[in-house]
Amino acid sequence: MKKSILLLAIIALFSFDIQAQSVQRSDAAGGFGIRGGVNFFNFGGQDASNNEYTNRAGFHAGIYSNLFLGSRIAIEPGVYYSVKGTQNDDFANSRSVLNYVDVPLLLRLYITDGLNIFGGPQASFLVSSKFEGEFFGTTYSYDTEAITKTDLGFVVGLGYNLPKGVNLQGSYDFGTSPVFKDSDAAIYNRGFKVSLGYSF
Predict the structure, then answer these.
(1) What does UniProt give as the signal peptide span (predicted)?
(2) Where are the beta strands (DSSP E) in the chain?
(3) pLDDT tens across 16-61, in order?
(4) Which of 87, 111, 173, 200 has the most CB atoms around it within 10 Å of its CB?
């Protein structure tokens, strides 16, 4: 199932790229590109506020494509590998390490030739999940099946296109699916991303 979803997403990206070549603006980061950066994720939600969760640093990397619908509006599908999770300031320095494939579908609105705002839905598919902790100087890790396999949410952010196809952006991921399956706890993936991209 996951392989089929990823294959369809990649095919869609290349289809968008072919169409975008004829309509992209010369001063915008149009077409096909690569993007990566750092994540700062935590568990959010009403039930997460009762715990000592803090931001955990991770990374993301992947590909995207822009389809310009006019001089100021573009649709941007993407596929990214993204490391999320959280840190807990307890005696064991415990943490969760959650690896996803993020598939966002963004709408970009260009305020100026470089500055843009964006937002849209995102589906995240769990690749692996584990809990880690440190005891007497040794790190212990074990895989867990307690994490929900698919996380549906939204992405909002601000971007800027630099010369030569380089672009910078900051975004916020707002997960809406509970992190833990078979649980009534209102705990969700929430976090910031800072990204550097390059459009070909």
Answers:
(1) 1-20
(2) 31-44, 53-54, 56-68, 73-88, 95-110, 115-135, 138-143, 150-161, 166-175, 188-199
(3) 444 443 333 434 445 899 999 999 999 988 887 767 778 889 999 9
(4) 173
